[in-house]
Amino acid sequence: MCGIVGYNGKNKAIDILLDGLSKLEYRGYDSAGVAIREKDIKIFKSKGKLVNLKEKLSNKRLNGTCGIGHTRWATHGEPSENNAHPHISNDGNVTLVHNGIIENYLELTQKLKKHGYKFYSETDTEVLANLIDYYYKKYKIGPIDAINRTMVRVRGSYAIAVMFEEYPDEIWVARKDSPMIIGQNEDGTYLASDVPAMLKYTRQVYYIDNMEAACLKKNQVIFFDLNGDVITKEMKTIEWDITAAEKEGYEHFMIKEIHEQPEVIKKTIGSYINNKTISFEESGLTKEALSNIKQVYIVACGSAYHVGVCAQYVIEELSKVQTRVDIASEFRYRKPLLDKDELVIIISQSGETADSLAALREAKSRGVKTLAIVNVVGSSIAREADYVLYTLAGPEIAVATTKAFSTQLIVAYLFAIELALSKGQITKTKYNELLKEIEKLPTSVQSILDNDLKNIQKISSEFSYKQDAFYIGRGLDYAISLEGSLKLKEISYIHSEAYAAGELKHGTISLIEDNTLVIGVVTQEDVYEKTLSNLTEVKSRGGYILSISPENIDVKKVSNYSIKIPQTLKYFYPSLSVIVLQLLGYYIAVSKGIDVDKPRNLAKSVTVE
Ligand code: BG6
């Protein structure tokens, strides 16, 4: 998720572009760049936050009134000046900025190389610049046909803004799945990934739809469909104030990121499953490497550790490969017994957490192969691991992780399935069945957000005075209860513990008294009755039970409040029950008036020991 902006009018473009980018930095902040039309197109790029680019431009006199800009969240190619946008075609005919992911960029790179194109960056975006140029030259056609042919040829998501050498007073845009709005006022025309970037200049906007393009002239915008025919668009008025806009109207980044989960889960699945087959090739984790793994050791911190606990159950059940999981701050000092044929998996959203990085280095120093499941491209853990599988959650602003957690679960499932197949532990039929079910998860998550959110909001307000809470479950339900409990603690400051349901009677049940809040996660059919009797034990001691279960599991008789989630295969229920657990934590915290995005004493990434 990057931020793109553009302006074409009568004022100096550079000020408007830099201002717009500063309002979009929540979308990505690892590098930035602008292209300004002076006599020719001038491009300036820098690594790191926008302030670095501003410094670089501070002594430049740029009077051009037409330009495009970009603030990056790396997906393909580490954050660097070379990989920063704008990107240009070989001869500079095409200059563009892009937000999204071109899934078939490797195939297109080979095609263009056959036609003599050379590539200077590791990005999927540079391919777009050359592909548009390729069609532009091959068919000697104008911008709209070159862009439309490109839209037909590429697979993935994109919002692009393009400047053509031979069309000095025009900016061309197109989109599919990535956001873009176009604005206009008496001073010119504007484009941006999101409203905050242009609210200062205009509230009059157009919404461009998927597979549509437009030409931004100094005083008009012309829209085109995929046939290149001109289409009309209705101008809309934006009511929001700037801060609300950055959160797209949501009260907090956390609830915004909770709502982004269906999309980012879909993106993450799409980046690894192609033609009903999982591919980790880009990471170097070949089928052969997978089949040689004798043991797996997952190491992480905080919520990422809880993904590891879930993954342990799924990896062992599907692939029969022994899997251990450990907290990084313990792993790094307890001299773990590691085996040469072992794979140490480090899970981290930021890729910079000190204990997890040290655990990675510890494993490497012992000659053991390491796999990083990371959200930040180019982060230390990503750079130092032998293999990297990126999650595509985009930038996560709220300290308490939600969408990154969900995308880490997806990558863990895909790893377990591919390992199981490479070990011959599952058939191709089972493999296909599992992938089919995973591809249903974005819709199921969306249905929880659509159908249950209001109920969860209502019931949560009844718990804001609670001092304690317990989360119980068996197997994968116990694993995800750990995350539910942490979410509540992190943002509501209510003390809570997660317990393996069968363990409760060996001590902690002494804490259960009238109205003690107990959240029972009951999705695993094979241990359903066992969990039910544990909930009955709690109920008989006065506990207030809020249960989370699918339709086919009946826990009504022990529940004071029951939340139903869509059905799926047993391995994947953490991806659904966690949505309810996140919403519970969020709404209980909000009902206590807490700033959930920046909870006390916590940081998004702990880069010190
Ligand atoms: C904490 C964050 O600082 O670090 C948690 O508040 C996170 O949300 C944990 O789970 C681990 O961070 P990371 O970036 O390594 O996943």
What order do the helices and strands come in, and which of them pair?
Elements lengths: L2 E7 L3 H10 L8 E7 L3 E7 L2 H8 L8 E7 L14 E2 L5 E9 L2 H10 L10 H14 L4 H11 L2 E9 L6 E6 L4 E5 L2 E5 L11 E4 L4 E5 L4 E4 L5 E2 L4 E2 L4 H5 L6 H7 L1 H12 E2 L2 E2 L8 H5 L3 E6 L1 H18 L2 E6 H4 L10 E7 L5 H12 L3 E6 L5 H5 L2 E4 L12 H20 L5 H11 L2 H11 L1 H9 L6 E6 L2 H17 L2 E6 L16 E5 L6 H12 L4 E7 L10 E5 L8 H18 L18
Parallel strand pairs: 18-19, 18-20, 20-21, 21-22, 23-24, 23-25, 25-26, 26-27
Antiparallel strand pairs: 1-4, 1-10, 2-3, 2-4, 5-6, 6-7, 7-8, 8-12, 9-10, 9-11, 11-15, 12-13, 13-14, 16-17
Helix pairs in contact: 3-4, 4-5, 8-14, 8-16, 10-14, 10-18, 14-15, 16-20, 17-20, 18-20
Bound molecules: 6-O-phosphono-beta-D-glucopyranose.
Structure description:
With 609 residues, this protein is of the alpha/beta class. Helices cover 36% and strands 23% of the residues. It is built from 20 helices and 27 strands. The strands form 5 sheets. The protein has an 8-stranded antiparallel β-sheet with strand order 3-2-4-1-10-9-11-15, covered by helices on one side. Strands 5-6-7-8-12-13-14 form a 7-stranded antiparallel β-sheet. It has a 5-stranded parallel β-sheet with strand order 19-18-20-21-22, sandwiched between helices. The two termini are 30 Å apart.
